[in-house]
Amino acid sequence: MNIENIEAFIYVCQVGSFNKAAEALYLTQPSVTARIQSLEREINIKLFHRNGNKISLTEKGEYFFPHAQKILQSYQEAKYGLQQVNIPYELVIGSALSISNNILPDILPSFISEFKDVRIKIITGHSKDILHKVINKDVDFGIVRTETHPQIDSIRLYNDPISLFVPRNHVFLKEESVTVEDVSKQPLILFDYGSMDWLTIHRLFLSKGLNPNIYLEVDNMETAKNLVLQGVGICFLPEHCVKKEFENEELFRVEITPPVKTNISIDFIYLKGKPKSVFMDFLKDKMFEQH
């Protein structure tokens, strides 16, 4: 069974179009059509209903689809297993900066121990930057805050609470309760202007008719965290970003009354139609252990 025909079938199923599958595979539409027809002849089964430009899977096609995915994944894993005897496999991971700084260092040692012949390359950036690198095939997959795009699939890893953090000796640490009104009077550092996280925090103040004292706006949470450590202001931050500083009692979580419930979602993202990698499964398990 020709693996390229299987791959073409999976792409057509994923994107719902011969033309779009051809674009994703960098082939012409007739080439994709020829591969599907070759596969149908080989297994003697009609896989698609065709009605003009519209296509849909036949009953047999729907049955065959998950088996085709397993065939392609098994082929790729076997190919990797054979190649690693002589050629180190390079895995390129795109990662949001805070994840690269605060999560990956804890799980990569066990990954390296498990996959001794895999050479890892990590590229960092904003989540949107990593999204574009996934689409452009600059990275094998990304680990980012939730991003949506018609060309990618995603797997939710976990939801990370966003809390208010303050430096050592801050006045809030002596208070029995802290309200949104109290927070609005403090020098506030906000990160990633215009993001969903930023808008959620901003709406918190708007709902109370408050104008927060926004002292600084920065473009990433690592910068925001370091400014809080220096005592420049206070900040709402995801807990993964401040894990070490919290454990070392350099930063402190402040509960707000009434409680403010919001979180940041961390996802794997990868090119639509591309089989899920065995490396992603391993990293996902390790991240669940961390959380």
From TrEMBL:
User: What is the name attached to this protein's record?
Assistant: LysR family transcriptional regulator
Which family is it part of? Belongs to the LysR transcriptional regulatory family.
- Gene Ontology terms, MF aspect: DNA-binding transcription factor activity; transcription cis-regulatory region binding
Residue ranges of every copy of the HTH lysR-type domain listed in the record: 1-58
UniProtKB keywords: DNA-binding, Transcription, Transcription regulation
- InterPro entries from the entry? LysR_HTH_N, LysR_subst-bd, WH-like_DNA-bd_sf, WH_DNA-bd_sf
Taxonomy, top ranks, is: Bacteria, Bacillati, Bacillota, Bacilli, Bacillales
One Pfam family cited in the UniProt record for this chain: HTH_1
